[in-house]
């Protein structure tokens, strides 16, 4: 069934996700501060709007893909925000905004009679382009039944709870586990290089044994050993996700010593290579400390 939807935030993730909605036959009203981003999707058939409020006046269901909890709050509840639209019923937040961010969004929009679903995604730009994202969604069952066909345009959908923030908690735990795996895999590659062992051979062995992870199978071979460092996830965003997870752990009294160490490496790398540096550049920080550069052969 073709729907009229809204999408706010059409950057690296939002652009391919909007294109998938268009390909599925939906009409999509879009908004982004970048006119170039809106022009590109207008050429693909989307309808540009002048504000989030205008998006919400044309679509009863609006999706968000935004970088920080503060921006999510501003887009939803600020001047010219979604709450000023006419006819809005459901907001689906695909961003990683943390459990408390999801709860604040739900409470703020409930005052306007708008339901929310926090539905962060995992799988990166490649997953967004191929429709193979993993989505974790928390919302009321009746809301989930309505939005599930929309979310299935993006990948596999998991209903993980009915309270705002439950999906966000799973997402930030997932991201912290992922970056921790990348950190230790990067350390292993630097150690191997300094010892005269080919890091590519190290990854081959690890990937056939118990140490394998997404980092060893994907990120290290594709983005580190090649020296491309173009996985497509900014250090600032990864550090933000780690902070959201550790803040929640602190609030609940759960020690996360390993995750805290991974965040420190992220912050050190962000300080060296900037907020827009790529997540996979963490290895370069370890290389600097060790005085060696990882250069592996071809895996396989």
Question: What does this 3D model show about the protein?
Answer:
- By secondary structure, the protein is α/β, with parallel strands linked by helices.
- It has two domains: 4-162, NAD(P)-binding Rossmann-like Domain (Rossmann fold, 3-Layer(aba) Sandwich); 169-290, N-(1-d-carboxylethyl)-l-norvaline Dehydrogenase, domain 2, CATH 1.10.1040.10.
- Helix content is 53%, strand content 13%.
- The chain contains 13 helices and nine strands.
- The protein has a six-stranded parallel sheet, sandwiched between helices. The protein has a three-stranded mixed sheet with strand order 7-8-9.
- Helix 8 packs across helix 10 (214-224).
- The radius of gyration is 20 Å and the shape is elongated.
- The model has no long low-confidence stretch (mean pLDDT 96).
What Rg, in angstroms, do the CA atoms define?
20 Å
Instruction: Kindly state the number of beta strands.
Output: 9
Structural class: alpha/beta
CATH topology group of the largest domain: Rossmann fold
The description of the largest β-sheet is:
6 strands, parallel
**Tally of domains:** 2
Please indicate the percent range of residues in DSSP E strands (runs of 2 or more).
Answer: 5-15%
CATH superfamily of the largest domain: NAD(P)-binding Rossmann-like Domain
